[in-house]
Specification:
The chain contains eleven helices and 21 strands. The protein is α/β, with parallel strands linked by helices.
Length: 477
């Protein structure tokens, strides 16, 4: 078997993070008839906790480290945990775009465990006072530049993911990519100061939708000359990527972490990935994973023990993440513009299903980029959820979909020499089509820029004229 490289996640300071995963992988590979020895396994040690280190620095250093392996067949497979996934994906893009700078070593299989491909809601916490205190007690820095990349809606993460969506399918290069993630947080690791650590729809650190590379890029923009304030939807889907949720598994921790207690289930899934050799078997594995995920989604009730009290009920609905960027046709950010999702006919924000919005987080550097965490099941409509302790009892009654869904954008300045008008998606576009269960959609909302002729005039009047208060005149067509 080809050389296997493990790449850890953010803030790791000891290779103990890999636990028994390499040994279990070796043992179960042998039992499955796959040749894998410890000599074939390499463990990464990279520094993400230095505030000066950037993602580009890690990529260059990773490439340098690979050259020292002296691979016999100039190829390797890689298993990553958490931030290790984006690191290797950034290296693949750099290798493609700068072939004279980066090595020609070929990556055959990339198995990503709980990767924050679209970031993590916890990244903002990592840069807060709590993150700095934790780093102080650990004797290392927070790793500011890597956390900037990991923040939801960061320009760097969106650049990588939009490139993936619009680029050639990795299968065309004979490369197989996989995403494996636990389907729930470890409740014992809940931080009462931050509810993200116990957020349903995540593994306690990374949202399932943020890990999944089956992503979409949607654009809402005016058509033609831009005079209309109706926005039409254009939708692109990225290449298919094998995605599997591992039931009962969390991001980390000795009890339920994806590389610790849950290692046997994780290892079996990894071996299924590493056994893939062609496009047909990859497609078959994608189908199998989809069927297993669908089975998990039908068994979505978790009863969390609460000591002497009744257990807390968690309904693990499929969720979607919508990353919205607001700009105009000139690329200017729409600062302070309001963005509302609407439902029904006529469209109204008041008709959206109760509880559909789980979270909203704006990016700290790009203020007109924000991430919406949505309950996909409530938007789609869902059957009655029965109590597993007594099927005649109802935990949640059936929910009816409120489709079609739309969007309304309300700029602040509606009258200036240069302004924007209130715009909405056209009635024929149901925006539900741009969402996917456990998936992320990047939505670019583009408004036309209304420029009045008073911005620039020519005159033949030679006597001095004061134009400190220009007459706007009509909008330029």
């Amino acid at each position: 078997m080809t050389t296997l490289v493990f790449v850890h996640g953010w803030s790791v300071t000891n290779t103990a993070t890999y636990g028994q995963m390499p040994q279990q992988l070796q043992q179960q590979a042998a039992a499955a008839g796959m040749a894998l020895t410890l000599a074939d396994i390499w463990l990464s040690e990279y520094v993400s906790f230095d505030d000066a280190v950037t993602m580009a620095d890690l990529v260059r250093a990773f490439d340098h480290a690979l050259r020292d392996l002296h691979l016999l067949d100039t190829s390797f497979a890689c298993i990553t945990h958490s931030t290790g996934g984006p690191v290797v994906r950034e290296w693949l893009r750099a290798q493609r775009d700068k072939p004279t700078v980066y090595s020609t070593i070929r990556l055959s299989h990339l198995v990503m465990l709980a990767p924050p491909n679209f970031g993590s809601a916890l990244a903002q916490l990592g840069k807060s006072v709590f993150g700095r205190l934790k780093a102080w007690f650990s004797g290392v820095e927070p790793g500011q530049r890597i956390l900037d990349w990991l923040e939801l809606g960061s320009a760097a993460s969106l650049a990588l993911n939009l490139d993936y969506i619009h680029s050639e399918d990795p299968l065309a290069r004979g490369q197989f990519q996989f995403v494996l993630i636990g389907d729930r947080p470890d409740r014992a690791l809940y931080d009462h100061l931050n509810s993200y650590t116990c957020e349903d729809g995540s593994d306690g650190v990374v949202r399932l939708a943020a890990a999944n590379l089956n992503a979409r890029h949607a654009v809402l923009s005016p058509q033609g000359d831009g005079a209309s304030n109706l926005l039409m939807l254009n939708l692109n889907r990225g290449p298919r990527c094998a995605f599997k949720m591992i039931p009962g598994v969390a991001h980390s921790g000795d009890a339920h972490g994806i590389m610790a207690h849950a290692a046997p289930d994780t290892v079996q899934a990894i071996l299924r990935c590493l056994s893939i050799r062609d496009a047909a078997s990859y497609t078959a594995l994608c189908d199998a994973f989809d069927a297993e995920n669908a089975a998990r989604d039908t068994d979505k009730v978790e009863l969390e023990p609460a000591g002497p009290f009744a257990p807390r009920v968690h309904i693990h609905d499929p969720c979607s993440m919508l990353i919205v960027r607001l700009t105009d046709a000139a690329g200017e950010p729409l600062t302070d513009a309001g963005f509302l999702l609407t439902a029904g006919t006529p469209a109204s924000a008041d008709l959206m299903p109760a509880g559909f919005m789980l979270d909203r987080q704006a990016n700290s550097k790009q203020h007109t980029t924000f991430s919406l965490f949505l309950n996909y099941s409530l938007l789609a409509g869902d059957a009655r959820v029965a109590d597993p302790r007594n099927s005649r009892k109802t935990l949640r009654p059936a929910v009816v979909s409120h489709r079609p869904y739309g969007a309304n954008v309300q700029p602040v300045d509606l009258t200036g020499l240069v302004h924007h008008a209130i715009a909405q998606s056209q009635a024929g576009d149901d925006l539900f089509s741009m969402l996917g269960a456990h998936q992320t959609t990047v939505l670019d909302v583009v408004l036309s820029r209304k420029i009045h002729e008073g911005v620039f005039r020519l005159t033949q009047t030679l006597t001095p004229q004061d134009f400190r208060k220009p007459v706007p005149g009509p909008v330029i067509r």
